[in-house]
Amino acid sequence: MADVAIKDISRGGDAAVNRSRVLNRFRQGDTIFFHLTRTAALLVLVLLFAIMASLMYGAWPALSHFGLDFFVSQAWDANAEEFGALATIYGTLVTSLIAMLIAVPVGLGIAVFLTELCPMTLRRPIGIAVELLAGIPSIIYGIWGFFVFAPFLQQTVQPFLIAVFGPVPLLNAVFAGPPYGLGTLTAGLILAIMVLPFIASVSRDVFETVPAVMKEAAYGLGCTTWEVVRNVVIPHTRAGLVGGIMLALGRALGETMAVTFVIGNAKQISASILQPGTTISATIALEYAEASEGLYRSSLVALGLILFIISFIVLAAARLMLARLNKQGA
Fold first, then answer.
1. Half-sphere exposure (CA, 13 Å, Cβ side) for 256?
2. Which contacts (CB < 8 Å, 24+ apart) does range 144-149 have?
3. Is residue 282 within 8 Å of residue 259, measured between CB atoms?
4. Dist CA 323 CA 330 (whole Å)
5. pLDDT tens-digit map of 166-184
6. Within the chain, how many helices (H) and strands (E) appear?
7. pLDDT in tens, 211-249
8. What is the DSSP letter of 176?
9. Phi and psi for 121 in degrees, rounded to 5?
10. What are residue 180's DSSP bridge partners?
């Protein structure tokens, strides 16, 4: 009996030792995993600050030479080394604004239709079509816009807008002719088509996260589909909606090739959205390869820094807006 007891104690000791080894192995794995994930998170911050530092270093010669005049001047003359960012900033903001004014309501409408109204047999084909639209390269949009969409606007839509809004004060300046086809409006419409799938796809995905019981309860109280969407679906998914809209706005602000094809690339500020213009990304793409060292190249880097700052401000404003909405909903 004594020998059996000694063997049981020995086995119990071995089990304790094995258990301790397994726990130590788990702790080591968790420690390694923690350090790897923390390194990945810190790497993002390092890359962000590295990009910002490189842009500031490259832009400093132009910013120190022109000062604040760089931000308020339309001049862009490489021969005279006179550069200003106002026209490119204006074009970037206006084209993005046009794109979002069109894409946001249409994208939300598509998402609502797919989740609330669309027959089941059509939901998958339409959803796949929207996702395929998001996968088309931007240069394809640019070529299509230049050879097909811009001539169509020049021959039909732009003359119609000029004729309709010509007698209307203020609007006659916004839609002043002649119809070039290429211009700020065309670029905004192309951007709207490009960012529409992002808004529609993200909105559809977040709408599907709404618990069915919440919508069924609203329908049981006699709410219409519009009331359910407005009072139940959208408040429940506003964080995801803001994220999708900001993702689309980020692409609209930084889109290069498609805009370069259809905006006309004229460094001027015009009240009419039918006139040619330019954006920050289009200017950098067209001129950086041929820019000489010195103020010319530094000015192009400064444009990149401005675009970086604009994107940061937009993201910060979105986060503040979302925090305020969450506070109001709490």
1. 9
2. 145/186, 145/190, 145/258, 145/261, 145/262, 146/182, 146/261, 146/262, 149/186, 149/189, 149/190, 149/262
3. yes
4. 11
5. 888 888 899 987 899 899 9
6. 16, 2
7. 889 988 988 888 888 999 999 998 888 878 888 888 888
8. -
9. -70, -20
10. none
